[in-house]
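Progress narrative, Year 2. Work on ADP-ribosylglycohydrolase family protein from Candidatus Fervidibacter japonicus advanced from sequence curation to structure prediction during this period.
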Amino acid sequence: MATLNRTEVWRRVYACWMGKNAGGTLGAPVEGQPGPHNFDWYPRLQEGGIPNDDLEMQLVWLEAVKQAHWQIDARVLAQAWLTHIGYNWNEYGFAKRNLRWGLLPPLSGAYDNDFWNDCMGSPIRSEIWACLAPASPRLAVRFAFEDAIVDHAGGEGVWGEMFNAALESIVFAVHDLDTALDLALAFIPPDCQIARAVTDTRQWWQELRDWRKVRERIAEKYWHREPTHAPQNLAFTVLGLLASDGDFGKAITTAVNCGQDTDCTGATAGSVMGILLGEVPKKWAEPLGETIATNLSWGGIRNITPLPDVRTLTDEVMTAAQRLLAWHGAPVQIADAPTDLSDLPADWLRPDDGVYELWERNRHPWRVNFDLTAVQVDVDYRGLPTINPEVARTVTVWLRNREPVPLSVTLVWDAPSDWQVEPMRSSVTLPAKGRVGINAHIHAPIRLPQTQTLWCQVRVHERPAEVAVPVTLIGERRWLVRRNGGEWKTEWLPDSRLPLEHWLGGQAGIVEARLWLWSPRRQRVVLGLPTNGAFQLTLNGTLLLSGHQPDYLVRPGQQGPPSHYKTAELALGWNEVDVRVERGDRSIDAYLLVTDPSDLHRHVTDLVMTQMP
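Result:
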């Protein structure tokens, strides 16, 4: 059994959190600005640092891990999202709405989230998994994957969190940065954008040895108008590490001076350097103190008693890490003896088949896995988890026999009376250790609900009863659309995006679109229409929004400038939303969003958008 010295690990975990606090505090005041900057010190100081979701969400994950007794998966973390996370920024909001509609991970992170799932919301949450699994990147990466798919499934955000978790776990054991980067890159697919951006950055650094010149190369190849896009930001973080020459301050200032999502890049660079060095220089640590600042006061996190300071957090993580490593059978222990990694298996710091299976799962985010007792059930939605009354929805239920003997299995569907499933009942014999897929064709009623869960009972002959498997489908939005003053036609849209380029065939023209919202009560909402076309939006005949900003960055955010977002009151019952967007000689895009007007900007989930009066 390999050994990590308890005191040494404690120092590295403590330095990880202090480094994250320092880097995040340095970068927060210029978050989202393109840069380059020229900071060599904090632009703004606050005792305990500036409250940031990067850190406080990991306090929630630590509590969830303890409550789940070290058995971490995306469904455990999904419950923690809904119980403890109040804010709904960007991908967080879409994932939480999807969860409230009944979608399980990874569907919650993939559906209606393709703009955001390549972004930084998950890579910033990697430290907890590395600190719970020091010198154990296979474990850290697995936990990071389960975390990331809740709100980034199918995207680069998953690869970003896996890479960060691998690197941070590895540097508990490997203190040469280049070797650690080589090992960490092996935990993500070499053809993903994150891997390419990191690899290119390392090559450019070898050639140029000037962070500003390397930053220019990164910007030329990976720049994105969305500041939180992950590949560019992971590259900036790695550049900070490479340019540091082992100096903590150089690492975080270089990462932040590159610009864009600076609170994240600075924080991750600080975390890695903290673990690697085992300390954060007093110059950077003392002005912040050890207090942990959070967004608890206004509900950003909730239903939790935050840990008061970094020492307490470190103590809690150390206790959990020792138990977690033992529970998962890791060949490394935390003990009072000197660090001795001579007995660490040669391949323990490298990916195994389990990691490669995670790659496949992220490449196919429309599959939901259920581990029953005798069989494993995989529900493959074969695309978006949506339905409309005009087209049958086909899902494939895959059954994998865990036993060394054949099993007779019957699937029985339980659906509302106005829904049809063909076939409602089907039987199959599973060969020993075999796998069989059964298609089900689902027909929805014309009075389509916004969300509907059907149940697939898996009955194994002469075996104990198994739980039923949920299959949740989101009703598609029923729009009336006309182009250039022509006839009105029904269009079923699967998500928040208005496919204007498709409707206009890439040509100049005008789209008029009408959607009815049925509200169960009078309620104030924020209607958002982020678009770069010339637009108007009316609610029940009253003009709410109009304008034209051709250079507007079209992003499906829950909030935005008053030119594109307006608070209004929905009536009880039916409400008519009319949208008019004009295209000139430039491509256009648009989304329609409905959120509540509170500081939390939660998606409104009790509306029906699938029917007409």
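DSSP finds 18 helices and 23 strands in the chain. The two ends are 68 Å apart (CA to CA).
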